[in-house]
From TrEMBL:
GO molecular function annotation: ATP binding; dTMP kinase activity
Keyword terms of this UniProt record: ATP-binding, Kinase, Nucleotide biosynthesis, Nucleotide-binding, Transferase
A GO CC term attached to the entry: cytosol
Residue ranges of domain Thymidylate kinase-like in the record: 9-197
Reported function: Phosphorylation of dTMP to form dTDP in both de novo and salvage pathways of dTTP synthesis.
Gene name linked to the record: tmk
Gene Ontology biological-process entries: dTDP biosynthetic process; dTTP biosynthetic process; dUDP biosynthetic process
Phylogenetic classification of the source organism: Bacteria, Pseudomonadati, Pseudomonadota, Gammaproteobacteria, Aeromonadales
Family: Belongs to the thymidylate kinase family.
Organism the protein comes from: Succinivibrio dextrinosolvens DSM 3072
PANTHER family associated with the record: THYMIDYLATE KINASE, UMP-CMP KINASE 2, MITOCHONDRIAL
EC code: 2.7.4.9
NCBIfam families given in the database record: DTMP_kinase (TIGR00041)
Protein name (database record): Thymidylate kinase
Length: 208
């Protein structure tokens, strides 16, 4: 059985990733493909427990950057090894709401952690495993946070200052410039139907 496609969605808060995942999933299913959607951090019972630790702000302790980085990779190790890799081998396409590029943007760009350390942990967790294609939905952080706020209570990341999200966005854009073959930059500020049309136009080029 042929290996499935591994597609990831990236972008800062409120960029529209969850919305576009449905568009991609419907497109691929329309082509007769088997599709599974997952999210990071999370996607398995253990990884979802780690997600709760990462997202919930708490008053009795504040998470240090190294803990955050290692928890992100612990959740990723669990999801990739116990779920994503076996499912790809079974021929499923996997669409993942965030993956390793989030760590580069948030922990590397946003938190300013040493990229050599991040690269070292990635090597342990992922080796050479990479997505086939990444959609980067780009939006002005103020605009994205407006959308996120409409959902109500803000999580630990969403409570960050706007400067943090500006660094995240800039890092994402740099990465897309460095690897245009694998990272497609999409303007997430456009009306929903335009964003979806741009995503589908890109999928059509994949010829699946
Ligand atoms: N994180 C994660 C790290 O720091 N490092 C890592 O390695 C990883 C994996 C995860 C947090 O963890 C951090 C990053 C995150 O802060 P999360 O809840 O998964 O937390 O957060 P997000 O992925 O940011 O989820 P959001 O829901 O905030 O963003 P989405 O999925 O991009 O946005 P979406 O699709 O839910 O849309 C938000 C709202 O905007 C509307 C939608 O209808 C919705 O109401 N919308 C549009 N409105 C107008 N025009 C458009 N084009 C629109 N598209 C969507």
């Amino acid at each position: 059985m042929s290996k499935g496609l591994f597609i990831t969605l990236e972008g800062s808060e409120g960029a529209g990733k969850s919305t576009q995942i449905e568009v991609i999933s419907n497109y691929l299913k329309g082509k007769g493909r088997k599709v599974i959607c997952v999210r990071e951090p999370g996607g398995t019972p253990i990884a979802e427990d780690i997600r709760a630790l990462l997202k919930n702000p708490r008053e009795d302790d504040s998470m240090c950057d190294t803990t955050e980085l290692l928890l992100m990779y612990a959740a990723r190790a669990q999801l990739v090894n116990s779920f994503i890799k076996p499912k790809l081998q079974e021929g499923f396409d996997i669409i993942c709401d965030r993956h390793d590029l989030s760590t580069v943007a948030y922990q590397g760009g946003g938190r300013g952690m040493d990229m050599n350390h991040i690269n070292a942990v990635r090597q342990i967790v992922l080796g050479n495993f990479r997505p086939d294609l990444t959609f980067l939905l780009d939006i002005d952080p103020e605009e994205g946070m407006k959308r996120a706020r409409q959902r109500g209570k803000l999580d630990r990341f969403e409570q960050s200052k706007i400067d943090f999200f500006i660094r995240v966005r800039n890092t994402y854009i740099e990465c897309a410039k460095e690897d245009p073959e694998h990272i497609v930059l999409i303007d997430g500020s456009l009306p929903l139907d335009k964003v979806s049309a741009n995503v589908i136009a890109c999928l059509e080029k994949l010829d699946v």
